[in-house]
Specification:
two-stranded antiparallel sheet; 8 strands; alpha+beta; globular; 9 helices; Muramoyl-pentapeptide Carboxypeptidase, domain 2; 251 residues
Length: 251
Amino acid sequence: MNKISAYFLLFFAIGCTDKPAEPLVITKTIVKVPKDSVIPIVKSKADTSLFEKYLFSYGLTNVNDLDTSIKLSLKYSDTANFLHICIYDTLTKALLPCAIALRLCNVQYYLKHINPDLSLIIFDATRPLSKQKLMWDSLKMEPNYKYNYVSPPWDISLHNYGAAVDLSIIDIKKNQLLDMGTSFDYFGKLAEPIYEYQFLKNKQLSDTAYKNRLLLRDIMKKAYFYSINSEWWHFNACNKDFAALTYTLIK
């Protein structure tokens, strides 16, 4: 059953202890996205792996337990990612702190109100610090360049608190991602919102991709998620100081 109609009431009824996140001040930017063809969608399995049990031990919430309509394509749960290795072993669920998961459900509600054929699709949610270290060590790239794409293990990421999410929008009728100008985890300026207007003017970013990025940012902002200047798919639920005070660091 699709649980969409009462997210705002759910926030109070479901027993979340997390405080609402403070707004994070970030420069507004927009990015272009390339066409992605039909993609595999990870379906949540009934059983729970040891890694999932470990994450649940931190009190995290399965997003699909709140809204079954949100789609998953967990990029680090198989080898179809920029590292070409499976980072998350058998993870099949998008897990987040309860209050943040509920806010994401609100985003889905806003999107469905605009177009019922569209859905959020999550690429990555909570990322344990140990997995962040594995990603850092596995990426064969000069450190000065690597910083732009992977947080080093000594620099805590909002993903490590479950206070950040990587996602996009999918047309569920076509089973096709909306054109955002680049693919997820694209290494280049075209994926950076800060350069969007420049690429829009020189036609490297299409009007469609630009508008799709605006749509994604707009619906995320309605639930107090904030974009960053370097990745169109990444959204923060709060800043690091607030996360450290409010959420648990997932090691």
